[in-house]
Request: fold
Amino acid sequence: MAREKGCLSCHEGIEQFTESRMWDDILEEGEAHADDNGCVICHGGNPRGLNPKQAHRGAPKSLTAKKGSECFYPDPGAIRIADKSCGQCHSSYVERLTKSLMNTEAGKLQGNLWSWGLQDNQKTIYGNYSLVDEDGLVPTVGTKRYKAHMKAHIAAYPDQTVAEIQQIPEISADEVMSHPNKAGITYSRQQCQRCHVGVNGREKRGDYRGGGCSACHVPYSNDGFYEGGDPTIDKGQPGHLLVHRLQAGSKSPVTVNGHTYTGIPTETCSSCHNRGKRVGVSYQGLMEFPYGSPFDEAGKKQPKLHTKKYLFIKDDLHHQIASREGNPEGGLLCQDCHTSIDMHGDGNIAGTTLAQVEIECSDCHGSPTRYPWQLPLGFGDEFAMEIGNTPRGTARKVPPYMRKGEVTKLADGESYLLTARGNPFGNVVRTKDDKVLVTSSSRSRCL
Reply:
């Protein structure tokens, strides 16, 4: 049976990873490497193995020769090997993500070390890993207008986009006794720096997630239990993915226990973004609370989430299911506003969100007197230079790096709105009657 079914001789019942064109590509590539199921393309391993020990070892030589998997990868999205798995098709993303704030967390360190008196300036010096930007301070993706804008931005803020960073040092107890402010380093290492994509999530309720690409694109439940059909995964042991599916855009649905959703849930983002600015939980309307009420039907306290107790107050207007009369049901996901560059970076080593995040509220909402397309580039951006008053306009096309993702198809007379730095939103459209139409990855649309 193992010879006939390959990996499915043990894993029969596991969910097909996606239904998009990506799956067709995986199957086609799998056939070229003696695996009709396509498992080895992402996971590596031996498709002709007759037992788990044989199957979970090595990789097809033909695949390795193409710079694919070299051995078996339980989590192919892990950033240390993602260039040989996800990166086979999404070539630029792994390098961008490696240099991005999602991996380096350089902004946290810059702020913490300055506030603890360990730096007398606000330069970006440290990150989770030592990195060198070998191609220089030039974005590898983005439109010409974006790259020109970022060139000026880097000149205005030279400390926030840097050519290299050093790994944050380890500090001994003796050093802290001699220099108490160095406790800021141990605090950062133990608390603030544990939520980057180079590692898996903390195994606490609400914090379960994969690493690297899997941190966002593979679903995990709050409790970390597997609820799919693979008979080899222990459903009673926390720490597993929710189901073996890709969560991305509206064309990659995830079905769990009869419920189907699309897009990357806000809860996935909140598995990291629940401390510091608390942007994930505050978007959901959750405020930290010292008590366990409201009590459930059995009179028990609410379970902790992210090791804390919360009280629901009121969620952000954009998150609300019915935001205002005339809009269809369905709130916006984080990814509906935040761009690929916001999340993956642009190929530079960003020191703060000031350097990496390219969007502003006015990009969609405009100002009290002007539509978004009438505003100049740089409007709303924290920018120490004259931005002029030339309208930014809109775009009819998206740059190549955006075509790997989901882009709204334009109708006659429509065009894409631009971010404050000059890249088009692939899902925010100016209609021919000057309305702003947002298409959510949850499949809802709102004006």
User: Anything to note?
Assistant: The first strand starts at residue 126 and ends at 127. Residues 354-446 form one domain. The chain has a mean pLDDT of 93. DSSP finds 19 helices and 13 strands in the chain.
